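Hey L., structure's done. Input below.
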Amino acid sequence: MSYFIFKNKYLIAALQKLVVEADFKSVERKFLDQGIKQAEVKKTLDTFKEIRDKHRIKKLEEKNIDYWGKQSFEDFKSFVDSLLKTSSKTSIKKDTHKKHTVDGAEFITENEDWLVYKINEYIASDLLGSREWCIVRKEEDFESHSKMRTFYYILSKNRNKKDNWYKIAMGIDAKGKKLYWNNFDNPPNGASSIPSKELNIPIFKAKFEFVININGKRYIEQEFIAAKGLTVGGDLNLSGTQITELPEGLKVGGSLILEDTQITELPEGLKVSGDLYLSGTQITELPEGLKVGGDLILRDTQITELPEGLTVGGSLNLSGTQITELPEGLKVGGGLNLRGTQITELPEGLTVGGSLNLEDTQITELPEGLKVGGDLILRDTQITELPEGLKVKNSIYIDNKDKIKCSEELRKQLR
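Output:
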């Protein structure tokens, strides 16, 4: 008899575990239906489980995931974040005389007057920083600024909270330049040094560390580069950062923004479902078979040619580049901007889903069978005749339209 009781006891426990897991899956689907990204939902649910299992939730109904399935994700995340803050504050009090442990921060050093932390995640910035700092008030500001600087918070042990130097933020960039902000965010653009050495701040070695959060995981630069086959669910904005290369086989579900970076080439197997911004980079060529679901912005880059098999679902902007010809079979779902380029002719079979801008180019004639889904802009060109097979959905903008040789049907579209 005791054997059956023992067996049933563990059978019931196993069934209860299955029911709880099913409940979490149900709530996860509800949050996803609210338009929340899967990575954010999963991270918040996992944090909730961890906090609940440590018995840090007091109210019975708030321990029940079904209760939160009836609330908005915003309310659920706010609840979880508030518990994290409480947990971190408790941790600080317990560890002040030990290792000064703070979630999302690294303890660097201390003396009789100050504590110094390197801030790795927003949760630590929110907990330790001054509310006057934008990188404390808004998570998105912390994430964007952290791409350009690594932040260290220098916290007073004995100064009054209203003192200018009660809290100090120091940011260091990739070139080693340091900027300081006092407790009240002065000066707004940062000072190159702390006004007085009498503050007795401990000497410590600060260094820039490129950090990026993707799908809820924190990567430093070398970890990011080594993450072969990495998939990013939404946008990946690296603009203005010191990143020098991307992981092989990178897949981006949204847009990839690389403007004003140090990147010189794109990896093989790169796939971008949204837009790809490359303006201001030193990239000189694109990988074979590159597929971009949205716009491809190459304006003012050093690119001189396009690869075979390039597919662009949106618009392709080549203005200000040194490109002299387009590949055969090029397909552009949106507009094609060739303004000011050195291109002298267009390939046979070119199809442009949006507008085609040939303003200020050296093109003298258009290919037979050219199809343009928007406007055709021919101002400041040497084109004097339009082919019979030309198809333009909207208007044709050209100088001296009365002197242009074309069919009567096309003449109606001249502007």
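Residues 33 and 79 are 20 Å apart (CA to CA). The mean pLDDT is 83.

-- N.
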